[in-house]
Specification:
This protein has a 5-stranded antiparallel β-sheet, with no helix packed on it. About 10% of the residues lie in helices and about 40% in strands. It has one helix at about 35-45, and strands at about 20-25, 50-60, 65-70, 80-90, 90-95. The protein is elongated. The protein contains 1 helix and 5 strands, in the order E-H-E-E-E-E. By secondary structure, it is mainly beta.
């Protein structure tokens, strides 16, 4: 976390019926290989779409982030959540509620 930058803490959300949302966001990528200068320029200039399209239960949103869970439920507790995704808000292109 950047010095002096504090994320808002959340204390609760609608655990009984969170909203189902659709979100599109730009992904960060990395490559752990070695590149020549030409290969590096080719990789940087690659115009591949890096958009992720995902849906899930909205756990939290604020100016800093969107948090969704792709799964809800569990064998012993239906209020369990899984596959949690924390997405920086500036990366989000589209966030809309899905009609249920």
């Amino acid at each position: 976390m950047m010095k002096g930058h504090k994320l808002k803490k959340i204390s609760k959300f609608n655990i009984k019926k969170p909203h189902l949302v659709y979100v599109e966001w730009y992904d960060a990528i990395c490559n752990t290989g070695w590149f020549t200068c030409g290969e590096l320029l080719e990789w940087v200039n690659d115009n591949a779409d890096r958009t992720i399209k995902e849906s899930g239960f909205l756990i939290h949103k604020d100016d800093n982030c969107v948090v969704i869970a792709s799964r809800q439920g569990g064998f012993t507790d239906p209020t369990n959540y899984g596959l949690i995704q924390w997405i920086p808000r500036p990366w989000v292109k589209i966030l809309k509620r899905v009609k249920e």
